[in-house]
Design goal:
There is one protein chain. With 443 residues, this protein is of the alpha/beta class. The chain folds into three domains: 96 residues, Fumarate Reductase Iron-sulfur Protein, Chain B, domain 2, CATH 1.10.1060; 156 residues, FAD/NAD(P)-binding domain (3-Layer(bba) Sandwich), CATH 3.50.50; 137 residues, FAD/NAD(P)-binding domain (3-Layer(bba) Sandwich). It contains 17 helices and 17 strands. It is globular, with a radius of gyration of 22 Å.
């Protein structure tokens, strides 16, 4: 944050220390043992459970809930982690209300699903707090795999490959591993350094070396990796940010939401993070909501999230939209940015209202703003990548790319949703296919 220049109206320390602690405390406090057993007892333990089908990582949800109910949370954790090695993080950030909990029979019958996400957190936290790693490495295969990107997809692939006996080197551009989990998620969703704790725990499998500060195309090339390793997995995410198509978009105070969130995630003291009095966030996804809510929690007086389509088209879940509204964020829909006004620095931003076909209605909106955050989508960065499809790396069902010996998964790859849980599943499945390719066997 120190290298940024802030204009009048953008300042740190708007609130007291006690208020910051409250605002950025755990969004969903952990269940205690009694609460976990009560929640687990609500599960019907369906034979053909729809919640399993709804889970991108295919966790046997009724089994792990039964294990909690019978007083064996560590066994429940192993059931979860066998399918999703980042089950602790996914329990905190996964949109369960749209996935497993929406599919829950209790949700259909009563409008109140079993608390699957919170039960998953209860089990994984119980095991990880003891420092227990429930998996062991297979015998060394003599094969060496490069994983590019230490985010959810890369870490998932690295762990599964190491568990199968391969030696793995993970190359990541950032100073810390974790990717989106470390740098891209609202601070109130994973407080107290959980993201790094989970990475440290994951590395307990052994056989994994992480090289931070190593970016693809800048420090290493794909050809070099292919020459030095038996296989390569690309989990590089989406590092670029789409430009704001409006006049004056280059004015001071127009910033990338992902950078704002990363600064918050790395801040030791929230009181030291500057925020504007009038903040506007442009976008309709999770990044937009995370930026808007956190701006409000930092003490911004007015925070407006503006999206070009209707709320039903927003990528942010209804839960996240309601969370933003509950924190005092105003949501404006069917408006596109037209111009940023101000003498060198943003002072106002002007929008055109549009109809369902994105055609201007003739009405406009002007909002006071001393900070504007772009959250209008991210793009793939890098040179000499495998073939692309829809501006992402083209992969088949097992993650294989157009380049021999190279797999890809997560946000950088075509196909799945841009969710942490989906990235974990793709990393895991690619690792199984890499293992089969390297050993001549079946995944």
């Amino acid at each position: 944050m120190a290298d940024k220049i802030y204009e009048a109206g953008v300042q740190a320390g708007r609130l007291s220390a006690e208020v910051y602690d409250t605002h950025f405390s755990d969004l969903h406090p952990a269940l205690d043992i009694h609460e976990a057993h009560v929640a687990a007892d609500r599960c019907y333990f369906c034979h053909d459970a729809p919640c399993i089908t709804a889970c991108p990582t295919d966790i046997d949800i009724p089994l792990f809930i039964r294990q909690i109910a019978t007083g064996t949370p560590d066994a429940a954790a192993k059931t979860i982690l066998t399918q999703n090695i980042l089950g602790g993080m996914c329990a905190r950030v996964c949109p369960t209300e749209q996935l497993c909990e929406q599919a829950c029979v209790r949700e259909a019958a009563e409008g109140k699903p079993v608390l699957i996400g919170q039960l998953q957190r209860y089990a994984t936290d119980h095991l990880q707090k003891q420092g227990i790693h429930p998996f062991e490495r297979a015998a060394e295969t003599g094969k060496h795999v490069a994983v590019v990107g230490a985010g959810p997809a890369g870490l998932s692939a690295a762990h599964r490959l190491a568990m199968l006996g391969h030696t793995v080197t993970v190359y990541d551009a950032r100073p810390k591993p974790g990717g989106l989990n470390e740098y891209g998620i609202a601070a109130y969703k994973t407080p107290d350094g959980f993201a790094q704790e989970e990475v440290d725990w994951l590395l307990g499998i052994g056989g994994i070396t992480i090289r931070n500060g190593s970016a693809l195309s800048r420090d290493i090339t794909l050809d070099e990796l292919r020459g030095d390793h038996d296989a390569v997995f690309l989990g590089v995410g989406l590092g670029g940010v789409n430009a704001l198509d409006a006049s004056g978009a280059d004015k001071a105070g127009v910033l990338d939401a992902v950078d704002f969130i990363a600064d918050l995630r790395q801040a030791r003291d929230m009181a030291a993070v500057p925020v504007g009095r009038d903040v506007v966030v442009i976008g309709g996804g999770m990044t937009a909501v995370d930026a808007a809510v956190q701006a409000k929690l930092l003490g911004a007086l007015n925070v407006t999230l503006v999206y070009r389509r209707g709320r039903e088209r927003m990528n942010a879940s209804p839960f996240e939209q309601d969370l933003a509204a509950s924190k005092g964020v105003r949501i404006v829909t069917h408006a596109v940015p037209r111009a940023v006004h101000g003498n060198g620095s943003v002072r106002e931003i002007e929008f055109d209202y549009v109809d369902a076909d994105m055609m201007p209605t003739g009405d406009t909106l002007r909002l006071a703003a001393d900070q504007v955050f772009r959250a209008i989508g991210q793009t793939l960065e890098g040179d000499h990548l495998p073939a692309l499809e829809h501006r992402k790396i083209k992969v088949d069902g097992t993650g294989r790319t157009s380049v021999e010996g190279v797999w890809a998964g997560g946000d950088c790859a075509s196909g799945g949703d841009d969710l942490t849980v989906t990235a974990v599943a793709e990393g895991r499945d690619s690792a199984m296919d890499i293992h089969a390719a390297l050993t001549g066997g079946n995944a």
